Amino acid sequence: MPKKSMRDALREALHEEMERDDSIIVLGEDVITHGGPYAVTRGIDEKFPGRIRQTPISEAGIVGTALGAALCGMRPVAEVMYVDFATCAMDEVVNQMAKVRYMFGGQTDVPVVLRLPSGSARLLAAQHSQCLEAWFLHVPGLQVVVPSTAYDAKGLLKTALRGKDPVLFMEYKRLYTNECEVPDEDYAIPFGQADVKREGRDVTIVATGPMVPKALEAADLLSPEGIEVEVVDTRTLVPFDKATVFASVGKTNRAIVTDEEVKRGGTSAEIASLIAEECFDALDAPVKRVAAAEVPMPFSPELEKLVVPKTEHLVAAARELVG
Amino acid sequence: MPVEAPSAEKLLDMYARMWRIRLFEEQAEYQSSQGKVMGALHTYIGEEGVAVPACAHLQDTDYITSTHRGHGHCIAKGADISRMMAELFGRSTGYCKGKGGSMHIADFQVGMLGANGIVAGGFGIATGAGLAAQLRGSGQVAVCFFGDGAANRGPFHENINIGAVWKLPVVYVCENNQFAQWTPQKDVTLVTDIANMSPAYGIPGVQVDGMDPLAVYEAAGEAIARARRGEGPTLLECKTYRFHGHNFGDPQQYRTREEIAEWSDNRDPIKQLAAHMRDAGILSDEQDADIQNTVQEEITAAVRFAESSPYPTPDELYKDVYSYDIG
Ligand SMILES: Cc1ncc(C[n+]2csc(CCOP(=O)(O)OP(=O)(O)O)c2C)c(N)n1
């Protein structure tokens, strides 16, 4: 099977779905001249002229327009250059996009996909490094997707592009160049299906996005010590696959929850409390969380490296739980 | 009231500041190519003729807000280049203790309220600075620098309207370099003369050649004086051009080499100011060389300062999240 980067896999998903469905359009800053900040939309203009719109720097306008078009028969994919700038469109996301279906009694579908480059990379400091899953997770009506591999990214984006509800699609900047096997044939990964990326009997690491490769690395390091880690990649946060997570915790009796978000009020808090609420009897030890320091992202490399959670934190947490 | 022409002393100071920006950024790009400066680096080279003459009318007690392209505004407002360079190097002696980097330099001592990673992030802050000045009756003004791209965000509209209706002492200075990152302005804005948007807010709109430092000096002087007199904001548009990429490493596929050369060879604001000063007998070849050498030495010293400064220690991590310690 061919190996592809996450960037290429996302691009393929967009091209294939645009081929299949005429109503898919793409909006965003620099999406034509540069293919967006990470070149994902490169080539769309040549292949699908008129179906990609390079926008002004108007995040509220981009998201609002995408929503309006979605309510009227189109299927827009809007790229917000960095998730940090989605904050400039929070009314459109939270008060409008998330609410229209329910508030209007189910009269309309809301097929909008927001692609949101996320996370730390290249020392971009406080306003270009954030992970905001938890903000969106909190709002009923939004779906939140966080792929960790090229394979998952393509399959999940396809599902997003075939769905009827808003999707916030978190693309971790650090993962764009990661490669894995991705088939040329069409496939889609349904939402609400977590993926057991590695099986193990001693401790479960529930990981999202960029923490998945780190969890797998931790599992490799711990295996020679006799600690067998099971890595569950949530893949989608809303809808959330409780069954797979709970089954894993039921087997290992120990859980670590990890993401790159600020720990306080982060996704890890939500997942840890679900486990505590619903798997209490299965647990041999309290749930542990490994997430980012509760500070705005500092610029200096010497400080940034203290913020982003690392493999070694997962290793230490697993040893503590099992030891 | 006509703006008085700048004195010889003022012109020499402006000229040195423009060189300070140019050489600081050339050095920053070099250090970036060497991997010593990391993160995003957006240079102001080519646009020096906007911030320097505009800030020549300001005191340390006046305010400015800046953008992601902030080094020029910092230097024009009088920030110390050693502490700026240290910030680019991520060192604890930098303006923000290494927590900000190139996109986030501020110097509150000289009224520089911060570069900003969010396009249009400065509108509210400048407008609020103007409100504080008005409430105090202090005669201070605030200058909000922003790009043509920023004019397409909501905060442009909301804050200029507030500034206008309250007659705040704010000057909104658009640095129209005709590109927003990799997008030509005409592709995303039908009204390409930002000054023409001023009637929508009931304030004067003035357009000036941003490559001509003396023209900017005069126009900014008038707008700032008007703000100080309590007559409210002006929307001042300076047509300009950045000679380098949007960020360091930008392949610049959205414009031609010829177009860049057209501007940098023929309209360089530093050359234009030098020519004027020579004609006026204010700048000899010797003085010119002296100024450039002195600035070059300052830059070398700034790099030495940055390189020899320590990185922030881990205990810095949780400081300054709040006014109190959270450990
Ligand atoms: C809210 C927001 N959207 C997008 C960006 C990404 N971005 C950074 S600079 C830039 C272009 C800004 O253009 P302009 O305001 O004209 O300033 P210039 O770069 O030309 O100086 C963009 C799109 C951002 N930093 N903030």
Secondary structure topology:
The complex is a heterodimer of chains A (323) and B (327).
Chain A: E1 3-5, H1 6-20, E2 24-28, H2 44-47, E3 52-54, H3 59-71, E4 75-79, H4 90-97, H5 100-103, E5 113-118, H6 133-137, E6 143-145, H7 150-162, E7 167-172, E8 179-181, E9 195-198, E10 203-207, H8 211-222, E11 229-233, E12 236-238, H9 242-252, E13 255-262, H10 267-278, E14 288-292, H11 301-307, H12 311-322
Parallel strand pairs in A: 2-3, 2-4, 4-5, 5-7, 6-7, 10-11, 10-13, 13-14
Antiparallel strand pairs in A: 1-8, 6-12, 9-11
Helix pairs in contact in A: 1-7, 3-4, 8-12
Chain B: H1 8-33, H2 48-55, E1 63-65, H3 71-76, H4 81-88, H5 122-136, E2 142-147, H6 154-165, E3 170-176, E4 179-180, E5 183-184, H7 185-188, E6 205-209, H8 213-228, E7 234-239, H9 257-266, H10 269-279, H11 285-308
Parallel strand pairs in B: 1-2, 2-3, 3-7, 6-7
Antiparallel strand pairs in B: 4-5
Helix pairs in contact in B: 1-2, 1-10, 1-11, 2-8, 4-11, 5-6
The structure holds thiamine diphosphate (TPP).
Structural class of chain B: alpha/beta
Instruction: Report the uncertain regions of chain A.
Output: none
Largest sheet of chain B: 5 strands, parallel
CATH fold call of chain B: Rossmann fold
Q: Greatest interface and its residue counts?
A: A-B, 34 and 42 residues
Q: Supply the number of structural domains of chain B.
A: 1
Instruction: Return the CATH architecture of chain B.
Output: 3-Layer(aba) Sandwich
**Tally of helical segments of chain B:** 11
Rg from Cα of chain A: 19 Å
Q: What structural category do the secondary elements of chain A indicate?
A: alpha/beta
Largest sheet of chain A: 7 strands, mixed
How does the overall form of chain A come out from the CA principal axes? globular
Outline of chain B, from the CA principal axes?
Answer: globular
Mean pLDDT of chain A: 98
Oligomer: heterodimer
Count every beta strand of chain A, where a strand is a DSSP E run of 2 or more residues. 14
Percent of residues in β-strands of chain B: 5-15%
Based on CA atoms alone, the radius of gyration of chain B comes out at: 19 Å
